[in-house]
């Protein structure tokens, strides 16, 4: 049985495997170093992060493909998969590994998520749109609820919108006003149609906005806001840092879902907008953690606003929009 090795360290056997795989037969050392087509082996932590990203994006990976992609030995890849399997982050299968549905890595694509909780998302988006003032600069993260918000912003004059969402940018480009400015961050595209990675983070960090409207994969009283995508978590943290206030859009099914990577604590949010499907205990926990909790009723379209962390509604509204 193989030993367990820390993710950030390499064994002598692993180093030998990497050194062997790092050389291309018949390729002189000077050519190997100067030829960009010859891939250098990744470090253990980098490899495991990339493996998890591939599993999350494609649902499964093959050992043979990872050997080629990462430039290390078959034995090294199998050791990485064993380690990630023991941590419950993926499931080993013959010849590779697969994602575990319902795990902290599982993430359906944008199209699949678009048909979930449609009524709730539309009401949450309407409430969020009422918080957007003409002539302001806002950021909108990727997600299906934030996409619903973007569709409601096309008539608001003078907006500057920073986003890492391809669908959000697309709807504002096509249907928005001529006096609106849309800034798309660029970066690597994820299944949720988010643009993430170092390039996206660099662009976002150079800008400043009044408000950040953010969707979330999951939220939990202890874990806060989380995502199954490590790179998306980093990009979302950059968005939060770019704004003066954070407004989170999350239907009730996000409560109790925990992704592998943390984005922010609940108390970092100025406002969380959710729906009446959230159970009373969760509602009380949220109301005590954030400055303002807005709950839209799916049946009546009433809106309750909880402020000050005391869990008591202070602003009932039957107009379908938040105050």
Question: How much helicity do the residues have?
Answer: 25-40%
Can you tell me the number of structural domains? 2
Mean pLDDT over the residues:
82
Question: What is the CATH topology descriptor of the largest domain?
Answer: Rossmann fold
- Binned strand content: 15-25%
Quickly count the helices. Answer: 12
Structural class: alpha/beta
Q: Low-confidence stretches at least 5 residues in length (pLDDT < 50)?
A: 1-39
Which H/E pattern describes the elements?
HHHEHHEEHHEHEHEEEHEEEHEEEHEE
Kindly state the number of beta strands: 16
Plain-language structure description:
The chain has 323 residues and is an alpha/beta fold. The protein has helices spanning 12-22, 29-34, 44-58, 63-70, 74-86, 110-114, 118-129, 144-151, 166-175, 198-205, 230-242, 280-289, and strands at 60-62, 91-93, 96-98, 137-140, 160-163, 181-184, 188-189, 195-196, 209-215, 218-220, 224-227, 243-249, 261-264, 271-275, 292-296, 303-307. The radius of gyration is 22 Å and the shape is globular. It folds into 2 domains: 12-98, Arc Repressor Mutant, subunit A (Orthogonal Bundle); 110-307, Rossmann fold (3-Layer(aba) Sandwich). The longest helix has 15 residues, at 44-58. The N and C termini lie far apart (61 Å). Residues 1-39 have low confidence and may be disordered.
Short summary:
The chain is an alpha/beta fold and 323 residues long.
Key descriptive features of the protein:
323 residues, Arc Repressor Mutant, subunit A, Rossmann fold, disordered N terminus, 2 domains, alpha/beta
């Amino acid at each position: 049985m193989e030993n367990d090795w820390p993710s950030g360290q390499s064994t002598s056997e692993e180093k030998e495997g990497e050194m062997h795989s790092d050389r291309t037969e018949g390729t002189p050392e000077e050519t190997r170093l100067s030829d960009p087509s010859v891939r250098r082996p990744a470090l253990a932590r980098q490899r495991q992060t990339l493996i998890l990203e591939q599993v999350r994006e494609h649902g499964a990976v093959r050992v043979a493909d990872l050997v080629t992609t990462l430039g290390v030995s078959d034995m090294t890849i199998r050791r990485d998969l064993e380690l990630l399997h023991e941590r419950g982050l993926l499931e080993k299968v013959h010849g590779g590994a697969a994602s575990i549905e319902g795990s902290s890595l599982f993430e359906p694509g944008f199209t699949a998520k678009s048909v979930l909780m449609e009524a709730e998302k539309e009401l949450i988006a309407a409430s969020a749109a009422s918080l957007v003032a003409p002539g302001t600069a806002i950021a909108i993260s990727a997600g299906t609820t934030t996409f619903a918000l973007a569709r409601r912003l096309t008539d608001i004059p003078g907006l500057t919108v920073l986003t890492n969402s391809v669908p959000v940018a697309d709807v504002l480009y096509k249907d928005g006003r001529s006096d609106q400015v849309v800034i798309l961050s660029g970066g690597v595209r994820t299944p949720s149609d988010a643009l993430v990675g170092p390039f996206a983070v660099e662009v976002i960090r150079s800008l400043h906005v009044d408000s950040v409207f953010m969707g979330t994969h999951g939220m939990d009283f202890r874990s806060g806001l989380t995502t199954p995508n490590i790179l998306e978590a980093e990009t979302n943290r950059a968005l939060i840092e770019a704004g003066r206030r954070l407004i989170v859009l999350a239907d009730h099914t996000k409560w109790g879902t925990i992704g592998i990577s943390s984005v922010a604590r609940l108390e970092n949010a100025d406002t969380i907008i959710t729906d009446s499907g959230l159970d009373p205990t969760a509602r009380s926990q949220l109301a005590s953690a954030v400055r303002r909790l807005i709950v839209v009723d799916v049946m009546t379209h009433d809106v309750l606003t909880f402020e000050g962390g005391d869990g008591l509604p202070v602003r009932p509204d039957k107009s379908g929009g938040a105050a």
